[in-house]
């Protein structure tokens, strides 16, 4: 049976799609993921345009109308100082969101690269570094945050760096664990045998494989940071007054919970919808990435 | 409907893909198995073998469903049973022995206890009785010291021992049927031969019906009574084992048999181009696009299974009469083409007295003066000539990969000397000049692992180009990528694919293209075909031979399969425990005298011939470290001379001069030759 063996194999027609397009396609199929994403987008839009559209000046005090119940004028009523709760709830996420997003980017960067690097290097350097990480993680996070903020102050850039650093430490472990899954694979060995530089192996070979884990971890971290930042703010280490902020609003209106619950519920609803949104999105995002195009059959 | 013990009738299984189209996995499959009979199920990967095996246990992968047909097991319709009824059959009346035994054992429970659990599930007996039965089973699967073995955890057993435990566990419920899904793939040849003999004996003794799924025709020839050949979800030929191997009537059966490298025939076998289609996507015969017998009718009307002899021998082909007119055994001899290539006398790589060890003594070892364990590779002296293919052969743990990793600079040797074109290769890869790295390239066994899943083929090929030829512009690199893909016989459009979108053979070609992108002098091939289907393997071997001719590349080819080595190698080095046993040209190695270890390896090779019987000369117990003195093979050697072999390192016996054929053994060569015959013996 003579079959011509030297013919080039022609590919069956399958569309080679960009990984991002593939992930987006998978994400779009998830109802909960899209719901979460919409919540996030709504929050971002609100944070961006709220100062222009709020019905009242969130800073305007009026002692004559303090602790009012919701009315057509004040949708969520007013707080102790007679400020409009609705307007303050809309504006109150601006600082929180900016700080946590920037801090998330920092956390993903430094935690991710640190984790990949030490996972790849292994040996004694990894051993020492990871023990330091363990030691750091054994301290309650709120204590660390309070410590750093009370030493360095509550300026915005200090908070961003503090949050980015603190939450990045947990990303190190995640990225390192994901790296260890890949580092024994032959393609890393192949790159080493070629004589590739360590930087190339970390950035070109390992990073694309660990990136999905890092991104999902980043999304989860964002929601943790929101909680962390709000807690600091609740304790009085957040945004200095009078700038409206969810954590501070909850702290200040706590005493009048029985008289004017909306002054607490307003910021709580805003915060929880954002965190729920992030969690739903992160779950669906992980699944969308997990339906791995690298393993998927070309059907 | 037939009343066979196991009767699969017209079975079709399929699933809906993301876009909602129905994809067939199995199409109109019918087969019967009687008690005491072994049916071998063969085909390339992805043809539906495992789906059929699982369906026989009443199990469907999630999302798949039965579109048509039925499976009857001793009269019961498997798909009409309730979950409870299925549970009472699975593991008790039908048992499955999967491919990876290590993964199917619970790692935290002692193996004896795991078997007892199965026994107590199927029979209401006391613990003592169950324990006695467990020990019986362990000795039935020929595990030495059953009482000691029963107390071990799975990780304390070797691959072959784990597979035996899994077989014992499957037998614990006294099943009437065994389904074996590639149970010996991944095991050493000697272990595989031992396990197969064991299974054959069990079937004869217990009268179990057996379905044996494998892609390895040598294995199928040894264990089966009847063979069903699958292609794209259909059975294309169903015949008694002697008929299908002597006079295959389906062109696909011929193609497969012609693509197996054989111990008896030198040269590279024929390869089949293309790959199986998705079942049910072609209007006519699914094999038509790859078939040289195909006519117009073949690609328009699907053929039916026809009975062509009383045996019964069934074939799904319009042209079987034409296929049968040529004598297969005659044709087979012509298929194997030796590839001529030039071997220069100049050495490419010289290794002398190389010693490699993984042992890194720590501070405590120094303080306690722990004796240094024997080195993993020792006394390794060898010259590889320019342009030759040198094969390193041995079981797992023989140090083949260790040597290759040392040459490529991933490990460092403890002592000795490795030289290549005047350069020192004793240093690790980081310390080597870039041009030296370029000249020595490595190809790995499993392309799934050696290609980064997140990189497209273009990115994969770009890496060596960027690294070794920094002056190339991106346009030049692009052209070079296309040229490389064409050299490994892939279309340039593959550049945009991810590894996950290619078949195993295509991926391995990309890996080969990546190695050749560096324009290397020496290519180290680490079992490059053992993860591939036979039909693909032949194509890859052919490709490697062609690439070698172009630039007179030197290959160091690691393999455990002696038939593959016969097909491609010029010279062979047989290794045991990191020590060389025998060195010689292919012709010298494959004829007596053999080193006793070579003899053992050759005896265990399964030939795709139902009459060939393996010769099991030595036990398959693996050794963890080489002996401190004497011959490395002393503990397993069937010809071991007490006192002498254990204490004195055997001398080299040269046949024609120091550089030629040599065997390291105490037994004189004439004595070895006189008692050894060619390895292929009829029953």
Can you walk through the features of this model?
The complex is a heterodimer of chains A (299) and B (683). With 299 residues, chain A is an all-alpha fold. Chain A has a single domain (29-51, 78-290), classed as Orthogonal Bundle (MetI-like fold), CATH 1.10.3720.10. Helices cover 69% and strands 0% of the residues of chain A. Chain A has helices at 19-28, 31-53, 85-91, 94-121, 123-137, 141-152, 156-183, 186-194, 198-234, 246-253, 262-290. In chain A, helix 7 packs across helix 9. The radius of gyration of chain A is 24 Å and the shape is elongated. Chain B is α/β, with parallel strands linked by helices. The model of chain B has no long low-confidence stretch (mean pLDDT 86). In chain B, the strands form 4 sheets. In chain B, strands 6-7-8-3-9-10-12-11 form an 8-stranded mixed beta sheet, with helices on both faces. The longest helix of chain B is centred in the first third of the chain and has 18 residues, at 189-206. Chain B has 4 domains: 1-93 and 175-224, Rossmann fold, CATH 3.40.50.300; 106-173, no CATH class; 249-338, no CATH class; 347-590, Rossmann fold. Chain B is 34% helix and 21% strand. Classes of the chains: A mainly alpha (299), B alpha/beta (683). The interface between A and B is large, with 38 and 61 residues.
Strand order, main sheet of chain B: write it out. 6-7-8-3-9-10-12-11
The largest sheet of chain B, given as strand count, sense and whether it forms a barrel, is:
8 strands, mixed
Question: Which outline of chain A best applies?
Answer: elongated
Kindly state the number of beta strands of chain A.
0
Reported for the largest beta sheet of chain A, the result is: none
**What structural class results from the helix and strand content of chain B?**
alpha/beta
In what range is the share of β-strand residues of chain B?
A: 15-25%
What's the CATH H-level superfamily name of the largest domain in chain B? P-loop containing nucleotide triphosphate hydrolases
Number of helices of chain B: 26
């Amino acid at each position: 049976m003579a079959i011509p063996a030297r013919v080039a194999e022609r590919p069956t027609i399958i569309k080679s799609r960009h990984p991002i397009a593939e992930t987006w396609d998978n994400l779009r199929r998830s109802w909960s993921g899209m719901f979460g994403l919409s919540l996030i987008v709504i929050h971002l839009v609100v944070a961006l345009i709220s100062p222009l559209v709020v019905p009242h000046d969130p800073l305007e005090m009026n002692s004559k109308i303090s602790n009012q119940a919701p009315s057509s004028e004040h949708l969520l009523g007013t707080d102790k100082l007679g400020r409009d709760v609705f307007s303050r709830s809309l504006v109150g996420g601006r600082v929180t969101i900016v700080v946590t997003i920037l801090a998330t980017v920092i956390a993903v960067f430094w935690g991710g690269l640190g984790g990949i690097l030490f996972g790849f290097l292994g040996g004694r350097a990894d051993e020492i570094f990871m023990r330091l990480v363990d030691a750091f993680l054994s301290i309650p996070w709120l204590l660390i945050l309070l410590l750093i903020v009370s030493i360095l102050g509550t300026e915005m850039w200090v908070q961003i760096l503090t949050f980015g650093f603190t939450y990045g430490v947990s990303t190190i472990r995640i990225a390192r664990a994901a790296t260890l899954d890949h580092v024994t694979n032959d393609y890393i060995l192949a790159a080493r045998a070629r004589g590739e530089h360590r930087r190339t192996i970390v950035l070109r070979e390992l990073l694309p494989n660990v990136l999905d884990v890092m991104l999902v971890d980043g999304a989860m971290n964002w929601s943790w940071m929101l909680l962390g930042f709000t807690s600091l703010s609740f304790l009085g280490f957040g945004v200095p007054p009078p700038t409206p902020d969810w954590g501070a609003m909850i702290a200040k209106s706590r005493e009048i919970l029985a008289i004017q619950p909306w002054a607490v519920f307003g910021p709580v609803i805003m915060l929880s919808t954002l965190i729920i949104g992030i969690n739903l999105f992160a779950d669906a995002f992980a699944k969308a990435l997990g339906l791995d195009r690298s393993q998927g059959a070309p059907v | 409907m037939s009343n066979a013990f196991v009767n699969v009738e017209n079975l079709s299984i399929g699933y809906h893909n993301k876009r909602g189209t129905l994809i067939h996995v199995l199409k109109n499959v019918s087969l019967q198995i009687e008690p005491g009979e072994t049916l071998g199920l063969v085909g390339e990967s992805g043809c539906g073998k495992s789906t059929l095996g699982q369906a026989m246990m009443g199990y469907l992968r999630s999302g798949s469903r039965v579109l048509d047909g039925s499976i009857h097991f001793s009269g019961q319709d498997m798909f009409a049973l309730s979950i409870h009824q299925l549970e009472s059959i699975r593991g008790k009346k039908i048992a499955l022995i999967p491919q990876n035994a290590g993964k199917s054992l619970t790692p935290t429970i002692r193996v004896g206890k795991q078997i007892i659990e199965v026994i107590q599930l199927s029979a209401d007996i006391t613990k003592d009785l169950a324990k006695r039965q467990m020990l019986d089973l362990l000795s039935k699967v020929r595990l030495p010291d059953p009482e000691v073995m029963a107390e071990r955890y799975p990780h304390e057993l070797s691959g072959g021992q784990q597979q035996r435990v899994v077989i014992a566990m499957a037998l614990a419920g006294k099943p009437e049927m065994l389904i074996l899904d590639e149970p010996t793939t991944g095991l050493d040849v000697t272990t595989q031969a031992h396990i197969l003999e064991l299974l054959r004996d069990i079937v004869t003794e217990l009268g179990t019906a057996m379905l044996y799924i494998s892609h390895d025709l040598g294995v199928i020839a040894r264990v089966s009574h009847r063979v069903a050949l699958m292609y794209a979800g259909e059975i294309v030929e169903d015949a008694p084992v002697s008929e299908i191997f002597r006079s295959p009537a389906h062109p696909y059966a011929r193609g497969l048999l012609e693509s197996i490298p054989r111990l008896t025939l030198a040269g590279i076998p024929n390869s089949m181009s293309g790959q199986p289609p998705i079942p049910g996507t072609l209007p006519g015969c699914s094999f038509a696009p790859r078939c040289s017998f195909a006519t117009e009718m073949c690609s328009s009307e699907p053929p039916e299974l026809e009975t062509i002899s009383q045996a019964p021998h069934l074939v799904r082909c319009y042209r079987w009469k034409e296929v049968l007119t040529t004598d297969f055994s005659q044709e087979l001899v012509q298929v194997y083409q030796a590839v001529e290539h030039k071997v220069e006398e100049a050495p490419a790589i010289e290794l002398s007295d190389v010693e490699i060890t993984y042992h890194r003594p720590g501070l405590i070892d120094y303080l306690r003066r722990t004796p240094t364990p024997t080195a993993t590779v020792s006394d390794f002296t060898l010259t590889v000539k320019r342009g030759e293919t040198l094969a390193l052969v041995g079981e797992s743990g023989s140090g083949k990969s260790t040597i290759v990793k040392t040459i490529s600079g991933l490990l460092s040797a403890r002592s000795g000397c490795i030289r290549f074109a005047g350069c020192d290769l004793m240093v690790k890869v980081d310390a080597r000049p870039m041009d030296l790295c370029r000249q020595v390239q490595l190809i790995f066994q499993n392309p799934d692992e050696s290609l980064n899943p997140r990189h497209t083929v273009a990115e994969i090929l770009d890496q060596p180009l960027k690294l070794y030829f920094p002056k190339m512009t991106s346009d030049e690199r692009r052209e070079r990528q296309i040229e490389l893909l064409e050299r490994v016989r892939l279309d340039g459009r593959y550049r945009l694919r991810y590894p996950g979108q290619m078949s195993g053979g295509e991926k391995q070609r990309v890996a080969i293209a990546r190695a050749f992108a560096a324009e290397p002098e020496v290519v180290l091939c680490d079992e490059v075909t053992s993860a591939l289907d036979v039909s693909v393997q032949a194509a890859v071997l052919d490709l490697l031979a062609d690439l070698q001719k172009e630039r007179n590349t030197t290959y160091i080819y690691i393999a455990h399969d002696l038939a593959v080595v016969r097909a491609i190698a010029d010279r062979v080095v047989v290794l045991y425990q990191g020590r060389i046993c025998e060195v010689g040209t292919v012709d010298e190695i494959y004829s007596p005298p053999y080193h006793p270890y070579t003899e053992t390896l050759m005896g265990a090779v399964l030939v795709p011939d139902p009459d060939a019987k393996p010769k099991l000369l030595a036990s398959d117990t693996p050794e963890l470290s080489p002996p401190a003195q004497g011959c490395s093979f002393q503990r397993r050697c069937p010809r071991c001379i007490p006192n002498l072999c254990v204490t004195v390192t055997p001398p080299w016996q040269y046949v024609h001069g120091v550089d030629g054929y040599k065997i390291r053994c105490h037994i004189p060569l004439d004595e070895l030759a006189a008692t050894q015959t060619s390895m292929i013996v009829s029953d």
